[in-house]
Amino acid sequence: MHPDLSGRIRELCTRTRPALSPGPAATALDVVARRLAEPVLRIGVGGRLKAGKSTLVNAVLGQSLAATATTECTTVVARFRAGPQNRVEVRLCDGTSRTVPARRGGGVPETVAELGAPRESITEIVVEAVNDRLADSHVLVDTPGLDSLTGLDGVSMTALAGADALLYVMPHPGQGDREALRALRGTATGRWTAGTALGVLSRIDELGTGRDPWSDARRLAESCARRMRGLVATVTPLHGLLAETAVCGEFTEEHARQVHTLRRLDGPTREALLYSYDTFLSGTALPIDRAARVHLLALLGMYGLREVAALPGPPALGAVALRAHLRRLSGLDGLLAEIRHRFVDRADRLRAATALDALSRLRVPQADTRGAAALAELRAQVRAVARTPQLRQVALGAALTDLAGNRLWLPPEDESALVALATGTDPGSCLRVPGASPGGIRAAADREILRWRGHEDAHDGVVRRHARLAREYAEALFFASDAIV
Amino acid sequence: MSTSPPSDLHPLGPAVARYCADVTEALGEEVSEASRTAMRAATGRLVGDHTSAMVVGEQKRGKSSLINALLGVDGLLPEDVDVATRVHVAVRHAPKPSALAWFRDATEPQPIELTELSAYAAVDPEARQPRHPDVVAVTVDHPADVLTGGLELIDTPGVGGLDSGHARLTMTALDRADLLVFVTSGASEMTASELRFLTEATERIATVLFVLAQTDKHPNWPRTLERNRELLAEHAPRFVTAPWFPVSSVRWWDGVEAEKRGEHDTARERRRDSGLPDLVTALTDAAARGSQVRLGNALHVAGNEVDGVVARSSRLLRRLGRDPGVEAEVADLTRQLAALESSGAAWRATVRTRSRELGERLQLGFQRSLSDLRALMDKRIAEAEPRELKDIPTEMEAAVRALWADLETETSKAVRGVLDEITQGLGTPGPETAGTDLVLPERLRRLPAMVVGRQDNRSAIDHLERLSGSYRTGALTATLLAVVTGGVVIPLMVGVLVTGEAMFNRLRRDQTTRSVADVTRHVARVVSDLGVEVPVEIRRVVDLVGRSLVAHVTAQLTAERAQLTAELTEQEHLVAADDRRVEKRRAELQDRVDRLTALSGRGAELRVRLEGDLGGAP
After folding, report:
1. Which residue of chain B has the CA closest to A172?
2. Phi, psi dihedrals of residue B596, rounded to the nearest 5°
3. What are the pLDDT tens digits along chain A (485 aa)?
4. Measured between CB atoms, does A144 come within 8 Å of chain B?
5. Residues of A with CB below 8 A from B58's CB?
6. Cβ-defined contact of B386 to A174 (cutoff 8 Å)
7. Which of A175, A275, A405 sits opposite B160 (nearest CB)?
8. Which phi and psi angles does A326 have, rounded to 5°?
């Protein structure tokens, strides 16, 4: 049983709080305590304009709650959390907040007017919805696109800085994204590293000709992950639209029947009809009215339409079967697995790291001797907590930051070892011996201990610092495996 | 080829090209090597003087795909779902396709196969590394229809952020572009960085065609276009009226495929929906203004060639008819050319003076750029986060490259200026030739005025007009222009680049930059190296310019004189020969004069039509 780090830190906060007089330090401590009282991890979703953030949010939530392109509310930061009913809390700059009704079926209202306040005066909206995923594992924060001419970068960055983990969404990863990620890391005091950020390659149907996006997407995701090494853990491709359609319940039996009609057309007719969105909307061969076609296109896109239309097998496929197929096509499960594996399974340590980061920055006026003593005690405790193996690994994330920023220079083999240590999700993957026996883990940990001890007397201070962290973490893994035996 | 977009070239383009080809063929071996060179140069100028359209935009906007579709050549420029283009690739017209790779450490470009373009101009999609990292640019010759009007398409690496040295290099390269094709995506409204790039780029270029690419993938593109217009109105109002072209390269190729299958209606529809024909029209229209002027110049040179040969043949005919005036005419011409060749000729002094001034101007400009560079780098170091320090040498390399490109542009501009003046000097009789009245062939008197446009070679053309008093010097001047654009400026640029590359290599060798002190030291050393080496290089280059010009002009004059001497010799031979042979020769000459006169008439007619198109331009 893992000790609950968040609980321990919360306890520290409770113990320290009475010693602090009202002031910035006390307020900051309260914020940390409140965050730790929330049961789940907070994941920020960021990216440039029109990267596909809201679609991803909906797909991950399994419910269309986020503002989409057709609504105005993409310019407001939206936090999604579980609640007993569908409603939206609008938080204003002056510290007040009000509650407004959610969109029908839940989620961000269609227009800013429905929020009851001008956009400029809103800091964020908290969307509560009856949603199992939100209740179980995480809170998502959707942010306005970076680099827009509307000038909302600051708003987005602040919102993302408060999250425990980051999903960075990019349709065509490039220099702009590297810059955006660096800027994000700047506002998040360096916490966004490969240990806490995950890249998502979105809108993959736009790659190449769009007819067979997956092979291109995999290759691009891989090369992009290499280029962004140290900035994000991996880059996972996702067809957001299909994912949303597959899981958000808008694809009904009626749509399945329309797809069936489409599949019954003979090959050449179907091909001509599905040549482009124009031909699909205007072709005469399909006995479906235009409004329905527009809706079907909005749900599936041309890639999705072509894929379901070309499905072999029994003539009639119900909505359930089609949704399952769309889900396979979308790559959603791969993304959910990554989120679970890298974020949710490590939620405790990620949340603890966010809290420790905030606590380590608490300051009280020098005259406040009682407060200062309480903070000194708090820091000592914080350091003790930080020595637990899980948090040592989070601390190693700083090494990845230095790697990405070229401040840390290591031989390639040692660099790979370090990246594995800092991003692995279990002892086997940390030590690059996946699935090894406890004996194998111990042997591998021993090798790592030796490797990093060798670097501990390096001339370069940066190398020394990270080598010590790496060695300590390897030792923690070594002893943990002993315990298993 | 039916695979090329229906190009709307200058209507006279093909006719003029044919005319030049006919003239070259008709003159054949009868003309000296020098004159044939002049002809080739003139014909070359028909397609050699380009209207450069630089295609810019963020990465992955489909710039290379767009150019491939415009050219009608599938996969000519490398395309990849991952970032592809790494260096500038300029595509120009030529009868046969070929390509050259320009290397940083070589003075001569290396011919490469068209199929190898991606290896030289793109990043290896697998290894994510350039296979030839020392390639600095690639130039491609291609017979695609869209280029025949003098359009040059320049593909650029996608710009991802404006603060890097690479973006600055693209900016500098814009100096050589005539118009900008700004490619945005149908997926998303324009971003803040796109607008920043646009604003900066258009400080240097007035004409912008906006392209909304990949419309096939985004059913909502009309909304995006609408939104872009709104954003421009709000943030960059001067582009409110600029044209937008929604295009889809994919659809264009689907049209080509449909055509191959024989589905003509579908093909037509796809091509129309691709939006490409409209863009082609706009591009060729934009090139047409430049091409009208250039077509006029080509006609002029070709016409001069024909008329020169006609005049010579006519002189021979007259000589055969024992006309006493001819001998004096030829002797006068010979004497005048000899005077121009002499070491005291006025144009040599002009070259000397202007070269010196050019040198001074370049030195001053360089010193300014260097202190700008130093300031930029100091600022960069002061603001850089520690982990960014390692990037600074790379950024500096890019910035130095940009500085070099500035220098190059300035040099070639200055060389053109010097040349204008020299050609003017050639037309002005020097002390030795004062008072010599040349016999002007009647046909030349009737020549319509030279077609003159607003191009920067206007003054040269003005001088040409004045020069038509000397029946060969017009062609000579044209040759000189060709020489300068093709023969002097390029080696000059390469010379400049070579020095630059030595410096770049040094920049690259220093990789151990871990601290602010290291980087500061590195920057200071590079700046000081540049300060020592470049002024010397500029002096060398300017000296080279001066000597090259003198050598070329002298060579042309010598060749001319040799031609006239040969003429005299032939006449003397003929005089000595018997009547039957003279009669045969006279018939041959008459036939040739008739044919060439007809050709000359065709040229004159083309000129009239071209002037009509110019709508009463001066």
Report:
1. B60
2. -70, -35
3. 345 888 889 999 999 999 888 888 888 899 899 888 887 889 999 988 888 899 999 999 998 888 776 566 678 899 998 888 888 999 998 888 999 988 887 888 888 888 888 888 888 899 998 888 777 778 899 988 888 777 777 788 888 888 899 999 988 776 667 767 777 776 666 677 777 889 999 988 887 766 678 888 898 888 888 777 777 888 999 999 999 999 998 899 999 999 999 998 888 999 989 988 889 999 888 999 999 999 999 999 999 999 999 888 667 889 999 999 999 999 999 999 999 888 888 888 889 888 888 888 888 887 888 888 888 888 888 888 888 877 888 888 778 877 766 667 788 889 889 988 988 888 888 999 988 888 899 999 999 999 999 888 887 778 888 898 899 899 888 887 755 43
4. no
5. 174, 176
6. no
7. A175
8. -60, -40
In the sheet with A122-129, reading across from the earlier edge strand, the strands are A97-101, A87-92, A122-129, A78-82, A138-142, A41-47, A165-170, A197-201, A235-237
Do B27 and B35 form a contact (C-beta atoms < 8 A)? yes
CB contact under 8 A, A172 and B59: yes
Confidence of residue B456 (pLDDT cuts 50, 70, 90): very low
Backbone angles phi, psi at B96, to 5 degrees: -120, 140
Instruction: With H, G, I as helix, E, B as strand and everything else as coil, classify residue A56.
Output: helix
Euclidean distance between CA atoms B414 and B316, whole angstroms = 42
DSSP structural state of residue A313: S
Q: Do A227 and B386 touch (CB under 8 A)?
A: no
* Candidates B58, B59, B79, B83, partner chain A, best to mutate (most A CBs within 10 A): B83
Are B128 and A227 in contact by the 8 Å Cβ rule? The answer is yes
CB atoms A149 and B219 under 8 Å: no
Are A308 and A263 a contacting pair, CB within 8 Å? yes
Partners of residue B286 on adjacent β-strands: none
CB contact under 8 A, A297 and B187: no
> Does any CB of chain A come closer than 8 Å to the CB of residue B127?
no
B387 and A CB contact within 8 Å:
yes
d(CA A57, CA A61): 6
Residue among B164, B190, B219 minimizing CB distance to A149: B190
Q: Which residues of B touch A204 (CB under 8 A)?
A: none
Distance between CA atoms of residues A185 and A191, nearest Å? 6
B238 to B185, B203, B226, B229, B279: CA distances (angstroms): 21, 12, 16, 11, 21
Q: Which of A175, A217, A297 sits opposite B219 (nearest CB)?
A: A297
Q: Which residues of B touch A406 (CB under 8 A)?
A: 387, 389-391
8 Å CB contact between B167 and B197: yes
DSSP, collapsed to helix, strand or coil, labels residue B213 as: strand
The answer to whether B188 contacts A220, with C-beta atoms less than 8 Å apart, is no
- Look at B386 and A277 and tell me if their CB atoms are within 8 Å: no
Q: Which of A175, A214, A294 to mutate to test the interface with B (most CBs of B within 10 A)?
A: A175
Q: Write down how long chain A is.
A: 485
Report phi then psi at B155, rounded to 5: -85, 140
Give CA angle at A286 (A283, A288), nearest 5°: 110
Which domains are seen in chain B, by residue range?
12-44+289-320+581-618 (no CATH), 50-288 (3.40.50.300), 324-453+516-576 (no CATH), 460-506 (no CATH)
Decide: A464 and A458 in contact? Cβ < 8 Å: yes
Chain A residues with CB under 8 Å of B161 CB are: 175-176, 179
- Say whether residue A328 is in contact with chain B using an 8 A CB cutoff: no
3-state secondary structure of B167: helix
CB within 8 Å: A149 and B234 = yes
Beta-bridged to residue B486, according to DSSP, are: none
Tell how far CA B21 is from the center of its chain.
20
Going from the C-alpha of B105 to that of each of A128, A135, B89, B381, B490, the distances in angstroms are 63, 63, 18, 29, 15
DSSP 3-state of B141 = strand
Provide the ipTM: 0.77
